[in-house]
From TrEMBL:
GO molecular function term, any single one: ferrous iron binding
Region (Disordered) residue spans: 1-47
PANTHER family named in the record: ALPHA-KETOGLUTARATE-DEPENDENT DIOXYGENASE ALKB HOMOLOG 2, FE2OG DIOXYGENASE DOMAIN-CONTAINING PROTEIN
Feature: compositional bias, Basic and acidic residues: 1-17
InterPro entries cross-referenced by the UniProt entry: AlkB-like, AlkB-like_sf, ALKBH2
Name of the protein described by the UniProt record: Alpha-ketoglutarate-dependent dioxygenase AlkB-like domain-containing protein
Alpha-ketoglutarate-dependent dioxygenase AlkB-like domain residues: 472-636
Source organism (scientific name): Penicillium angulare
Length: 684
């Protein structure tokens, strides 16, 4: 990564006082979040609080000790980039036309809008030891913005930042350092010259000499207009580093007292006046600041916030010493979303409208088989996946309605109980995230046997879930899914195995489950799921390697299963028949496939289902998980997705990964679910 250093480079140590900061945009990898994606200026923390988390900004710190001139400075500059072989490689110039970040920084400069700066302790380029994972520095103002040319010839945006409140001593200052001086020379400024070619005025920034920093000018990045070679290791001019400007008019008045980085807590006393965004939208997922210990508290629990690291890790990671002792919590006093609000009340006494949609390119040539009688008051829609020589399976959709949902212990009651019962529904630390320790977007809890769901999700036995959380009616969730599994197996002549695992997922508004499959034969052949709450769209498509016939490296797949609706279906089918009849050799078979088969684009969706409140989906057949994948996209607000399956005890999914570390072996009885006679669901 490109960098510039001035004078002596200090060894890594604790961050000391810095009153001005120069920064550029660091080249970012594909797994980093965008800091800002707008033509608007970078936002200050105003009411309601909103501030920019800056992880990709590059800092130049000037250290000022007792009024002495800056001893050193450091720049880590970058621009728009892509990642290749663990190295950052420039692929384009950075300018206002192709970078919203550049436009945002420029607007912040024009409007003198303060920018909140946050530093992460994994910034390897900053030669300081930071005390916390994320360190909120202060508010800064943009004083200068220019472009610098790297040795690769590309222009990168550079920004100089100055602390807004020059009278406040920085929290990172050395203990014995003096307080900031109240006497400031705001008249001193760096030398400036006007470019003869573009007529733009620029300050003297580097000691090598004055340059024009207009990247479109013919004299851009030339010393006094000459073509003298410029090293990528430049020193800053002392006047450029040392000068200060007033923030607005009076630098003696704290200018940012009205801006608070601490977000307001929601007013639970006014639930009816709160917007959906605060109840179950994006804002409801945000963290808060503990009023007792000032620690940032992520939204982990479904019901609210708890300032307790042990609660977050559930015994898997010992809490840090500094995290112990605070038990503050802020929990919703009642359920968040009432069952069947106006958005969910479609066709009050009938079924919820159209429940399916076929796509243009599909292996299913007609709509589902609709059965209005056998499972009344449900409507049963059956989708079959055709194949010539193998059985893939079918998806059965039990479409609910008001007559079902409003019954005692029906979907309406279950939706409410899931929100108020304390059974450990929470966000977990993802084991597959590119960012270590990142929380899942959804809230989850596993019931029954442990299930390897890529998160450390400690399981609860069915007995504890049904009898110890204070809501025995929750047994109706398992009872309804078990009924659906039994009916699906009976209709298709497959073996019934009771579910011994159940996963509960809570989604806020706008959250979704991306394309995935629920196992590839190591689970039982039947999986059931129920939707409680807002409406969602469930779609199926063929897995890429079976649709295209090639793997990610463009090599023909060894198991060439040719399914109706796949790419080049007739060609692949006829060619395979020739090979099976030994009319062509294996080498000829592979050569012909390579001539035609190419991986390009994503497979099309074969059909979609609209999942309303109370609907149950059953996927029956291991071929569905092997050859197809599905996704679930939110349409309305908050919802719960509950899935039940039978785990094979010799499968990879049946592991000890999600069991309390103090438990040496898995108790098979965790997956036993015995329902009383009055708990068994009869489909009514």
């Amino acid at each position: 990564m490109d960098h510039m250093e001035i004078d002596k480079k200090p060894s890594k140590r604790k961050l000391s006082d810095a009153e001005s900061t120069t920064s550029g945009k660091r080249k970012r990898s594909s797994n980093e979040d965008d800091d800002w994606d707008s033509d608007e200026p970078l936002p200050p923390a105003v009411s309601p609080p909103s501030y920019t988390y800056i992880s990709t900004v590059v800092f130049t710190i000037n250290e000022e000790l007792a009024g002495e001139p800056p001893a050193w400075a450091q720049i880590i500059s970058a621009g728009k980039a892509r990642e290749r072989k663990d190295k950052y490689v420039m692929f384009d110039n950075q300018n206002e036309d192709n970078s919203t970040h550049i436009r945002a920084w420029k607007r912040s400069l024009q409007l003198q809008r303060p920018v909140g700066i946050v530093l992460g302790d994994r910034n390897s380029q900053l030669k300081y030891e930071l005390p916390h994972r994320y360190n909120v520095l202060d508010y800064f103002m943009v004083t200068d913005m220019w472009y610098a040319k790297g040795v690769d010839g590309y222009a990168r945006g550079q920004v100089r930042l100055q602390k807004v409140d020059l009278l406040k001593k920085s929290w990172w200052a050395e203990k014995d350092s003096p307080d900031p001086s109240r006497e400031r020379d705001f008249e001193m400024s760096p030398e400036k010259k006007t470019c003869d070619s573009c007529d733009e005025e620029w300050p003297l920034i580097y000691t090598v000499g004055w340059m024009c920093f207009n990247q479109y000018c013919q004299d851009f990045w030339k010393v006094d207009g000459s073509d003298a070679a410029i090293s990528d290791n430049l020193e800053f001019d002392d006047n450029f580093l040392s000068y200060r400007i007033k923030y607005h008019r009076n630098h003696l008045e704290p200018p940012v007292a009205k801006w608070d980085l601490v977000p307001r807590l929601p007013d639970f006393g006014n639930l009816l006046g709160m917007t959906d965004s605060y109840l179950c939208g994006e804002k409801a997922k945000r963290g808060v600041v503990c009023p007792n210990c000032n620690k940032c508290v992520p939204r982990v629990a479904f019901r609210g916030w708890k300032c307790n690291t042990q609660y977050l890790h559930e015994g898997r990671v010992e809490p840090r010493e500094s995290d112990e002792g605070c038990t503050w919590e802020y929990m919703f006093p009642a359920y968040i979303v009432k069952p069947l609000d106006e958005k969910l009340s479609r066709d009050l006494e009938d079924f919820h409208g159209a429940s399916w949609k076929l796509t243009k390119r599909r292996p299913i040539t007609a709509g589902p088989e609709q059965d209005w009688e056998s499972h009344s008051p449900y409507r049963k829609d059956t989708y079959r996946f055709p194949a010539e020589s193998i059985r893939i399976g079918e998806v059965i959709h039990f479409v609910s309605n008001q007559a079902i949902n409003k019954k005692v212990n029906g979907p309406d009651d279950l939706l409410q109980m899931l929100q108020i019962a304390d059974f450990g529904l929470r966000r977990q630390r993802s084991a597959v995230s590119k960012v270590p320790g990142q929380l899942t977007g959804s809230f989850m809890k596993n019931i029954g046997l442990p299930y390897d769901y890529n998160v450390p999700n400690i399981s609860m036995s069915f007995d504890e879930f049904h009898n110890k959380v204070g809501h025995p009616q929750l047994a109706q969730i398992y009872a309804r899914l078990d009924w659906a599994i039994r009916e699906a197996c009976k209709a298709n002549g497959t073996e019934y195995k009771p579910a011994n695992e159940m996963l509960i997922l809570g989604y806020f508004r706008g959250q979704e489950m991306i394309w995935h499959h629920d196992g590839d034969g190591r689970l039982g052949s039947t999986i059931a799921g129920m939707n409680l709450g807002a409406t969602a769209r469930m779609s199926f498509r063929m897995k890429s390697k079976y649709y295209h016939g090639v793997d990610s490296n463009q090599n023909p797949v060894l198991e060439d299963v040719i399914l109706p609706g796949c790419q080049h279906y007739e060609f692949r089918r006829d060619l395979q028949k020739k090979f099976m009849k030994r009319l062509i050799t294996r080498r000829e078979y592979s050569a012909e496939r390579r001539k035609v088969l190419r991986k390009g684009g994503v497979p099309p969706r074969v059909f979609e289902m609209i999942l309303h409140h109370g609907n149950i989906i059953v996927q029956n057949g291991t071929g569905i998980q092997k050859y197809y994948e599905h996704c679930v996209e939110a349409i309305d607000g908050m919802r719960f997705a509950v899935t039940a399956r039978h785990l094979l005890k010799n499968s990879r999914e049946f592991t000890t990964n999600n069991v309390d570390p103090s438990v040496e072996t898995i108790d098979p009885s965790m997956g036993d679910c015995e329902l009383a006679d009055d708990q068994i669901y009869d489909g009514k």
